[in-house]
Write a structure and sequence with these properties.
- By secondary structure, the chain is α+β, with helices and mostly antiparallel strands.
- The chain has one domain.
- It is 36% helix and 26% strand.
- It has a seven-stranded mixed β-sheet, sandwiched between helices.
């Protein structure tokens, strides 16, 4: 435990905090510890890690568009991830990333911060592997950690648009789409 704490201290502001997801262990769902981080998208090695996700996840679950956004926006991009990696958090292993999310910048004095995209490793994603997945609640844990960080600064996380079918999940994690009526009309 001491090594993990030391690594977290060295990790600096990129370490957001601990979280937990559910893992299937001996046919039962149990809490397992994971870590939430924020990529420093102005660093080449961080961009390479995000880019590696695109290949590891075969471009699925928004990994390609998140990688493209990080590459285009560079340091202005806010990319958070949830990882099973426990040590040496200064060098993130792409294969240990369970989920990734892009957001606006948390600014004190601003009432809200936008959550743009949320992607989960296809191996654990509800849509692709509902019955055979070994981990669940990855997106929930990532959003919860981000919301906690935002609310500490007095900022409320929001989602402006959601595709049809996403509203149930978003409301479960405390995010109500601001313009769901527009998306419903466009989606018809």
């Amino acid at each position: 435990m001491l090594n993990i704490l030391n690594d977290r201290t060295q990790f600096g502001t990129r370490y957001i905090g601990p979280a937990s997801v559910k893992a299937k262990i001996k046919h039962r769902w149990r809490d397992v510890d994971v870590n939430v981080i924020k990529f420093e998208t102005n660093l080449g090695k961080e961009l390479n890690c995000i880019e590696a996700l695109k290949y590891l996840w075969s471009g699925k679950n928004l990994s390609a568009s998140i990688a493209e956004e990080a590459r285009i926006c560079g340091g202005a991009s806010n990319v958070y991830a949830i990882t099973s990696q426990e040590r040496k958090l200064d060098k993130i292993e792409p294969s240990k990333i369970l989920g990734v999310m892009t957001t606006g910048k948390i600014k004190k004095g601003e009432p809200t911060v936008e959550v743009y995209k949320i992607g989960v490793n296809p191996k654990y994603a509800y849509e692709q592997n509902k019955k055979s997945r070994e981990l669940k609640h990855i997106a929930t844990a990532l959003i919860d950690a981000f919301a906690k960080k935002a609310r500490k600064s007095g900022v409320e996380p929001i989602v402006s648009f959601a595709e049809p079918g996403e509203e149930k999940f978003l409301s479960k994690v405390g995010l109500k789409p601001q313009c769901s009526e527009i998306v419903e009309i466009i989606g018809k």
